[in-house]
Write a structure and sequence with these properties.
Number of domains: 2
Number of helices: 11
Helix content: 40-55%
CATH class of the largest domain: Alpha Beta
Radius of gyration: 19 Å
Strand content: 5-15%
Strand order of the largest sheet: 2-1-3-4
Order of helices and strands: EHHEHEHHEHEHHEHEHEH
CATH architecture of the largest domain: 3-Layer(aba) Sandwich
CATH topology of the largest domain: Rossmann fold
Largest sheet: 4 strands, parallel
Distance between the termini: 32 Å
Length: 287
């Protein structure tokens, strides 16, 4: 049995609990054990451009806590993934920075040595569990269902740091979508930003970016968007609902989290997957 320290970050427990519950449900069936480290703190991402050393210390502390238990880390949020990978990369490249960080961490009796790996959920499923193993667990394959897989930004770039997939032509998400029996469609804006980073600072531009992606997905024949990032799902689900509510009309393109899609294909009922928590209903495949 594979065992990972599950890093949830800050947003999932508060705003997107269904990402956690659906991930736990599918990973349990696939023989992946998740360990919770209560001492985990914020990944540091919000501080990266404000106080770099505080960001680095926050990330390094999480890695040190996982190292103490000899566990690799698995993240669900791509921002957390990018932040932890960035810190890991910098500390391995800069011994003096590592020494400075460890001088603080050692006050808690932990230290960062760079001995563990940081994986995203999709990497674990594709590379560690394997597509063929997942295929054997699919009980209700989808037929005639078109999915627009949205890769997100922080898992792909900077590629030399995150080492997730080819940033210009990724394929991991498409493989994982198609193992459910659905078709992962080719759509022009699949690698474009969802608009979430601008929400709160330039709402008009943020929603314009979101709408362009939604419109392109619909025009390309998608029945659903599929995400594997906290902020992307909030943007395509919660924010899309807000946009449609303000306009008083419109045809939504529902967004489903990947573990929800996979869980349904594995025969897991909608409730443990948190389908009822999505703002825009997932009816056809969740009924």
């Amino acid at each position: 049995m594979m065992t990972y320290a599950l890093f949830l970050g800050c947003q999932i427990p508060i705003r997107l609990q269904q990402y956690e519950t659906s991930s736990r449900a599918v990973l349990e069936r696939l023989g992946v054990e998740l360990m919770d480290i209560e001492e985990f703190n914020c990944c540091g991402y919000p501080l990266r451009n404000i106080d770099f050393k505080t960001f680095l210390l926050a990330s390094a502390r999480n890695l040190a806590l996982a190292e103490k238990k000899n566990l690799n880390v698995m993240t669900l949020c791509q921002c957390c993934y990018g932040a932890l990978k960035k810190a890991d990369f910098l500390l391995k490249e800069n011994p003096s920075l590592k020494k400075e960080v460890n001088a603080v961490l050692q006050q808690e009796g932990v230290s960062y040595e760079g001995k563990i790996e940081i994986k995203h959920l999709l990497s674990v499923l594709d590379q560690e569990v394997g597509v063929e193993t997942i295929r054997k667990k699919v009980e209700k394959p989808f037929e005639g269902l078109n999915i627009a897989a949205h890769y997100g930004c922080h898992a792909l770039r900077p590629s030399q740091v995150v080492q997730f997939d080819d940033p210009g032509n990724p394929s991991i998400f498409d493989r994982l979508v198609e193992v459910t029996g659905a078709k992962s469609i080719d759509w022009l804006m699949r690698l474009e930003c969802c608009g979430a980073p601008l929400l709160g600072s330039n709402d008009e531009l943020s929603t314009e970016m979101t709408l362009k992606k939604l419109n392109n997905g619909q025009a390309s024949g998608a029945d659903y968007l599929c995400t594997a990032c906290t902020y992307c799902q909030i943007q395509f689900d919660t924010v899309q609902q807000m946009i449609l509510s303000r306009r008083g009309s419109g045809h939504p393109l529902p967004s489903i989290l990947y573990p929800q899609l996979l869980g349904l294909s594995m025969g897991i009922p909608p409730e443990p997957l948190g389908l009822q928590m999505n703002k825009i209903p997932i009816r056809e495949i969740g009924s």
